Amino acid sequence: TLGTQTDYRDGEAQTDPYSPEYIVRGSSVPEILALATLTWGRGLPAGQATMEIIDRIREKRAWEAALPPMDSPSNVAKRLKMMEAMERKEWAYREEEIDKLQKAQMEVFKKLLQRREEDQNELDAMRLYNHWKNHQKAKEQKMRKIQHDCALMLRKLIAKRKNCMGKLERRDIIKEYNDFSSPAYAPLSRIGFFPDNNSDYYSVQNFYLNTFAGLCELEKSVGYSVDLIKIKAPKPKRTVTKTGYIKRAGRLDAVLAQVHQ
Q1: What is the spatial distance between Cα 193 and Cα 123, in angstroms, rounded to a whole number?
Q2: What percent of the chain shows pLDDT beyond 90?
Q3: What is the pTM of this model?
């Protein structure tokens, strides 16, 4: 019920059809020899254009058979007239073929030019978009800088307006202690205060924690239940479900253990 297909099937290994050698006996010329120039991939299998060529070859053979013999001046003149008409017909057919070929080439050129124009338009649109994007980014950066400078200048103007007359303000102790960002809570080092110098001022010096005798006395004062350490062993994680499926975490643990080993 199953079908298989190999990588090397008959269709891919097929060569050109075999054409055996032939011998023409007598003065007869078989019609098939007129198509000896057609090979597989170049005219075969026959399409519409190839069938038209075959019909033209047949018409030409029939025309050659219908030519009058050159045994009298009238037949020679008639033969020349028929050959001139055939030559004009051949030239007209050739001109028609050239026109068809030129039209096909023009269509191909039009498609290529249209495709190139579309690609160029797409490239130009992308370049314009990138250019516009860079200008927008520069514009936003400039606007942010202007807004930052504006806010800075406004803060400076507000600070100058508070003391526009140049008068000295008295210290408001209640206001300073209500504001946790004031120098009362966070003095500045530029005015001579270094809070890190007295960092051990608030450290607790405990006799029971800093000395060995204090630790021994502390152990005697506490009960036995405090010294008893109760540690429960963690339960192993279940990495296998009830249906026998190994969870993803279990697979990762196994891979990590293998890599660690």
Answers
A1: 64
A2: 28
A3: 0.37
